[in-house]
Amino acid sequence: EFRRVLFRSRGLVRFITFEPNPRTAAAADANGDVNFPVGLWSSKCRKTLHLTTHPDSSSVCNLNFELLEDFQAKAGVELAGATEIELDTLDNCLAPSPDLAPDFLKVDVEGGDLEVLKGATDALSRSVLGIRTEAPLVEIHKGAPQLWDIYAFLRLRGFVLFQIGRAHV
To answer: What is the model's pLDDT at position 90?
Structure first.
C-alpha cells in the first residue's frame, strides 16, 4: 500500500535517499530526487556493511542467526561479503541545503533505525511531520533496539504511534 501511494504521488514529492551499499546506489534523477552515497547513523563514522544474499537485508548490525534459523527468510540473510562504508547524520547531510528539509522520513536500516533517528534530532524538531520505521518485537539484529526503545525516543520528541504493521519473515 505504501509503495502504491508513493507511486501515485510521484509528481508531488521529491525523494531524498541515502544509499551506501555500492550494489544498489542510485544517483539524482530528472524529478529532482537526490541520493547521498552515504549511510545514516547517529554520528559521522565508518562501519563495516555486512552484505547479504538479499541486498535489502545488508546491515552494519550483526544479524541474530540463531533466531533467524526458525524463519523462512533465513536464506536471504546469508552473508555474501563485507565492505567499509561512510556514515553520517541526517542533520549533517542536510545542513548545507535547507531546501531539502524533509516532511516525512522512511527509515529502514536493518537494526540501526534508532541510531538514524538520533542523528536526525534537528530535522525531527523542525520539519518532520511523520515517520515510518522498522521497530521489531524480537532481536533480529543482536543488541539492536526494539519497538519500545524506538517509541520511547520518538514519544519524547512529540511523536505518537499511529499504526503497527506486521513484518513477514
So the answer is: 98
Q: How far apart are CA 58 and CA 124, in angstroms?
A: 26
How many other CB atoms are there within 10 angstroms of residue 106's CB atom? 14
- Evaluate the CA torsion angle 34, 8, 40, 25 in order and state its sign: negative
All residues at 6 or more sequence positions from 71 whose CB lies less than 8 Å from its CB, including other chains: 169
C-alpha cell at 64: 541474530
pLDDT at 3 over 70: no
User: Residue 50 burial by CB count (10 A; 0-12/13-18/19+): exposed, middle or buried?
Assistant: buried
- Its pTM stands at 0.86
Alpha-carbon distance values, 76 to 29, 59, 131 (Å): 29, 13, 26
What is each CA distance from 65 to 53, 57, 76, in whole angstroms? 14, 13, 12
CA distance 156 to 159: 7
In the chain, what is the greatest distance between 2 CA atoms, to the nearest angstrom?
46
- Please say whether the beta carbons of 47 and 60 come within 8 A: yes
